[in-house]
Amino acid sequence: MEEDTSKVPQSTNTKHYYKRQHYKSDSDHILRKRIPPRDIRGPNDFYITNNSNFKGQLAQCIKALDKGESEIVLCGSGAAVPRAINLALQLEDKYSGSYSLDVHTSTIHLVDDLESISNTHESRSQTRCNSCVKIRVYKINE
User: Fold this and answer.
1) Taking 70 as the threshold, does the pLDDT of residue 26 lie above it?
2) Residue 92, Ramachandran bin (φ over 0: left; ψ between -120 and 50: alpha; else beta)
3) What predicted TM-score, i.e. pTM, was given to this entire model?
4) Whether the Cβ atoms of residue 88 and residue 76 lie closer than 8 Å to each other
5) Phi first, then psi: what are they for 6, rounded to 5°?
6) Ranges of Basic and acidic residues compositional bias (predicted)?
7) Which of 20, 36, 83, 139 is the most exposed place for a label (fewest CB within 10 A)?
8) In the predicted model, is pLDDT for residue 61 greater than 90?
């Protein structure tokens, strides 16, 4: 059976978006990504990003563990997930069996704002999902 679409009102101002085009800016709007929400940061929590120097992040983690901390938590989201995993594996390799890893993955919902360039169009918000990883590096009790 075919549906009769002649009774459905057709809007001339409606833009049809495909799956990934939905999140892109167009000529009427600018895409502004909001900062992702973060948990309350403790002294042993390290947020891993792609913008920071990997050796510097590794040195900070080693310094915290050498001070006698029993555990640290590495948090990474999106494109920084492989970097957080690599950092945790580097720490596990350096301390050769005296520390272990506990990995938790999750998905967070992020909000992006599409701001109107002119006042003729309204601003709107969009949500998207992003992968996250929290890796707890803790001392093994022997």
Assistant:
1) no
2) alpha
3) 0.73
4) no
5) -70, -25
6) 23-42
7) 20
8) yes
